[in-house]
Amino acid sequence: MQTRTTAKTRLRLRVTAAAESALRGGHPWLFSESIREQNREGAAGELAVVYDRKDRFLAIGLFDPDSPIRMRALHVGKPATLDREWWRARLRATIARRTGLFDDQTTGYRCIHGEGDGWPGLVLDRYGSVFVLKLYSAAWLPRLMEIREVIGAEFKPEQLVLRLSRNIQQAAGASGIKEGFLANEEEAKSSKAGAEPESPVPFLETGLKFEADVVHGQKTGFFLDQRENRRRVESLASGRRVLNAFSFSGAFSLYAARGGATSVTDIDISPRALESARRNFALNQAHSNVVRCPREAVQADAFDWLAGAIRPRFDLVILDPPSLAKREAERAGAIRAYSRLAQSGVRVLRPSGILVAASCSAHVSADEFFHAVRHAATKSGRQFEEFATTHHPPDHPAAIPEAQYLKCAYLKAKD
Questions:
Q1: Which of 150, 358, 384, 389 might form a disulfide with 411, Cβ 3.0–4.6 angstroms?
Q2: 139: domain range?
């Protein structure tokens, strides 16, 4: 006797007028409270189609029943079939946007930047021949191997490492998905299956050698987004004594040393970070300016250390703290902290010195951050010239307000 199976009906959503406008305007997030009608329950990673008030196709995206962001739109406009060829075309378009950005002296950069590249909740970073895929939404978990095959076909990585944000690790575990080496079908049959990824991984940035801890390091193993600011610091460092607060891997200091700094001081509360910086300096002894530049490492809370400093000592001060506002409720306190930090930075700045102040807090707007830094400079009673402000580098496009996290101000004392 034959049994008849019925294909699952497509998950259909109707949303508020405001949500329709947002989707048409390019914002990929559809929040749960914006859904007016849903034909059935949906599973994580399932494709959901949004229809407008005239019952016309509006968008298709990844559904997540357990997230306030109920759907992440992948395509808006005319109907499309999201098959393997569609994914390949999406990835090739993403790669094409980076054409000409990097040469063989920079082998560490972002290949896919989430919402900015049309891959909401997913990033892919390259470190030499090793690539790191990080997921921020459980909606990607059911499609992991499909995406892995597309990435493998285009980039042919020596290794692909999977990292998961904290908020989806439980869901991943329930699906049998773990962080680490992500094998393709061929590798799964070989001795590579289950192998621990090698870390740290060497790569180049503007000709400097660095290591990325792709297994246990923050983000995907390195802060690639500050590359353009590091290059600018190198151009400003000649003949200057440099302080790098919240130094992490020492990348700003290493650029400054190559740029001709007379000394660099790294401050970080983490001994692991300071050791990483020491190794990065050791990797670059072929650069004569790096060899000549004395480096001091101080393990301390940068806020406390700066607050306790009693006299100006530095000609270039770099303030690049971790995010001080990880949620909206922390925004006001973060703004005050940025101002206080800038005040401390000004206090240790010598005449004609340069202050470089950065923020990676998405909940603090660029206007709010720049105002806090300017206010601190004015409050000091000294005169400053603000000669540059910067935002995201080209391999980290910020397409929506919520993704606009990075900003940096450059101020030079006039005394």
A1: 384
A2: 84-188
Distance CA 35, CA 24 (A): 15
The count of structural domains within the chain is 3
pLDDT digits (tens, 9 = 90+) for 16-38: 999 999 999 999 999 999 999 99
d(CA 318, CA 62): 40
**CA distances, 253 to each of 256, 297, 303 (Å):** 5, 11, 18
Interatomic CA distance for residues 351 and 384, integer angstroms: 10
Number of H helices, E strands in the chain: 12, 20
Single-letter residue type at 297: A
Residue 166 tokens read as 């904290």
Q: Model's pTM, two decimal places? A: 0.94
Q: How do 314-319 and 241-245 pair as beta strands?
A: parallel
389 and 258 within one domain = yes
Handedness of CA 36, 39, 40, 41 (dihedral sign): negative
The whole-angstrom separation of Cα 257 and Cα 275 is 17
